[in-house]
Amino acid sequence: MEIKENFSLKELTTFDIGGQARYYGHAMDCGDLKKLLQFAKEQNVAFFVLGGGSNVVFSDSGFDGLIIHIGIDTFGIDQDVVTVGAGVGLLDFLRRAARADLGGFSGMAGIPGSVGGAVRGNAGAFGQEIKDVFVSARVLHTLTGELVEFDLAMCDFGYRHSFFKEHSEYVILEAKFALTKSHETEIAAEIEKTISLREEKHIQGIRSAGSFFINPVVGEELQEEFFRDKGVRSRGGRVPAGWLLDLAGLSHKRIGDIQAGEMHANYFINVGEGNSDQVMQLSSLAKTRVRDQYGVKLAEEVQLVGF
């Protein structure tokens, strides 16, 4: 296992933005991870655990520590339970499960990133969330080196939230999911249909960090306005951040080479040589407009690292 110095962070993310990491290491198993953690301790530097790089914005000033890139790619099936390494891509997981006639979770298709990141953020789309099929996760406590088995209750899943978001000292190694028996051709068709629906929203194949803000909880008045506008009821009092941003005039808004999305403004696109300063300027503008016009405070869904 090689530890590299002055490693470019741009190539590690779907946003294609970021400076250099002082150190970088790729952990393919628990042993690698422990060695990298020991290295960080010996060098007296901070560490950041990275998965698929789809929900993170690195500062152009870089990260003065160790980036630990999780590449654990284990994959196993026991009846209808699939055990997946944290470094496996979410779409790869769904397609490999489909080849074993296991599905029922195709609404997640096309969400970028890794299984570990999806569990950490309780990723979701089209009415489905990771928690719906989650069974357990094998986790390393980085301070003690202890391996812990987390069940559903211990993960404290909520909307785009889990125990792991509040406790970064725990690193997910692999997770188990209970899927549904079906036929490969049917599951594959559902996966491709979901991807097509995402493409219609122009959120596939772009340089973006994905949904930038969490869908906020709003008052009844805004909920009713959303219903009148879209014909659907809000879930849990939340309305799409993209809808609010569009109302606030952020659609197509561009600062430098960072532009808010065309179909909805809750994804920022690197349309050229965008940088982290431009991202933060557009984010600040978006939060200010929504706060001033609607009294709603937006919170980032993306991780901001090195700022």
What does this structure look like?
The protein is of the alpha+beta class and 307 residues long. It folds into 3 domains: 3-70, 2-Layer Sandwich (Uridine Diphospho-n-acetylenolpyruvylglucosamine Reductase, domain 2); 75-188, Uridine Diphospho-n-acetylenolpyruvylglucosamine Reductase, domain 3, CATH 3.30.465.10; 204-305, Alpha-Beta Complex (Uridine Diphospho-n-acetylenolpyruvylglucosamine Reductase, domain 1), CATH 3.90.78. 30% of the residues lie in helices and 28% in strands. It contains 9 helices and 19 strands. The strands form 6 sheets. The chain has a 5-stranded antiparallel β-sheet. The longest helix has 19 residues, at 276-294. The model has no long low-confidence stretch (mean pLDDT 95).
TL;DR?
This protein is α+β, with helices and mostly antiparallel strands and 307 residues long. It has helices spanning 30-43, 90-98, 115-120, 152-155, 163-166, 184-200, 220-230, 241-247, 276-294, and strands spanning 3-8, 20-27, 46-50, 56-58, 63-70, 75-78, 81-85, 102-103, 124-125, 128-129, 134-141, 147-151, 170-178, 180-181, 208-211, 254-255, 258-260, 267-270, 303-305.
List the helices and strands and how they pair.
Layout: E1 3-8, E2 20-27, H1 30-43, E3 46-50, E4 56-58, E5 63-70, E6 75-78, E7 81-85, H2 90-98, E8 102-103, H3 115-120, E9 124-125, E10 128-129, E11 134-141, E12 147-151, H4 152-155, H5 163-166, E13 170-178, E14 180-181, H6 184-200, E15 208-211, H7 220-230, H8 241-247, E16 254-255, E17 258-260, E18 267-270, H9 276-294, E19 303-305
Parallel strand pairs: 2-5, 3-5, 4-19
Antiparallel strand pairs: 1-2, 6-7, 7-13, 8-14, 9-10, 11-12, 11-13, 15-18, 16-17, 17-18
